[in-house]
Amino acid sequence: MCKAMEEMRKEAAAKARIESKIEDAIEMMKDHFSIDRIAKITKLSVEQITEAGRLQGLL
Asked: How many domains does the structure of the chain reveal?
């Protein structure tokens, strides 16, 4: 049971890190950073950044 709880905690932390990076990427898009530059800084994929930008109406 402890291993399952630890795995859930790790997954939640990883998801929170990605969500934080996506929020940062959105702010960078608002400041007119290039998609490639955002990918380099955040370590997100171009696809993740493009999808977030489209959902926010930025692309």
From this structure: 1
Q: What is the pLDDT of residues 8-42, one digit of tens each?
A: 999 999 999 999 999 999 999 999 999 999 999 99
CA 24 vs CA 20, 21, 38, 44, 58: distances in Å: 6, 5, 9, 10, 14
Q: Residue 52: which domain range?
A: 32-59
Residues of 12-49 as b/e, b for ≥16 C-beta within 10 angstroms?
Answer: eeeeeeeeebbeebbebbeeebebeebbeebebeeebb
Asked whether residue 52 is domain-assigned, the answer is yes
pTM here is 0.85
